TrEMBL record:
InterPro entries found in the cross-reference section: HTH_HxlR (IPR002577), WH-like_DNA-bd_sf (IPR036388), WH_DNA-bd_sf (IPR036390)
Protein origin, superkingdom: Bacteria
Keywords from the UniProt entry: DNA-binding, Transcription, Transcription regulation
Protein's UniProt name: Transcriptional regulator
Record-level Gene Ontology MF annotations: DNA binding
All copies of domain HTH hxlR-type, residue ranges: 9-106, 167-269
Gene3D superfamilies reported for this sequence: Winged helix-like DNA-binding domain superfamily/Winged helix DNA-binding domain
Amino acid sequence: MNTLTTRASSINRALDQIGDKWCLLIIQEVFWGINTFSEMLATTGASRGVLSDRLQWLQKVDCLTKAPGRKGGKRMIYRLTPKSIELYDSALMALEWERRFFPTLELESVTLLHRTCGHVFTPQMRCGKCNESISIYDVSYKPGPGAARDEREKKVRRRSSLSVQDVPSKRSVYRNLINIVGDRWTANVIALSFHGFNRFEQFHEELPVATNILTDRLKFLVEHGIFQQVLYKERPPRYEYRLTEKGEATYPWFLSILQWGDKWCDPTGAGKPMRLIHKRCGHTLHGQVKCSECEKVLNAQEVQFDIGDPRAA
Ligand SMILES: [Zn+2]
Ligand SMILES: [Zn+2]
């Protein structure tokens, strides 16, 4: 069978379900209120074939449901499920990353209003115990009860020729992040670097994909400024791949995906493959996405998302 085995990881499990470029784009559209096939076709720019393939997949993994908009009506509406609603944290962290590294007039005119406190806010990933902002180097890892190996399908998906940069939707507010993580191997490689892996052989040992695929993905991540190559041996020249500031800043997004995977993508029921410890306070890490103004935990129902008119600014 066309499979490979990797160390069990909630990030990989989660992204094997929703980490495809088109799945991430579709979920984002539904978050911002787009929910029919024709609307999604127009906003994502995907072909009919790709769109219906991903919509079916997202229903299969329990991230979307489909039902008539009105009783007896013909128009089908796609809705988020309790599982996919909880991807909201990751959407907020993705938006923050995008604003920091790809600021545009359009992005600047997007506002998030926390109805609970009445303020326009910035979402922040904080420790549920000590409330400190979480940075990549404040976290350590231990094997959890579900530490094991996962057999994963090397599924080949119908691809679209459209690049994420050309997606027509104005609501596509974290397209650059999707471009970088929307390929399972690039996302897997970035996740490995959080654990201190930084050489080609180490990546390859953890992620036994074909070497040309791995080489290609590392090159992509260097070109997109996520990794920098640092010479560690002169003859023959050998390079390590170190996260740049931009690469490190993807961490809150990955952490939110990891926590979502812990909760929703555990096929064995054995528990978390990994236990995260917040070194600042010494407690098991439970990251919470909070409002910068009132420091309360954010949830989708209490946040108003507005796309302003950049020309009016
Ligand atoms: Zn803490
Ligand atoms: Zn607030």
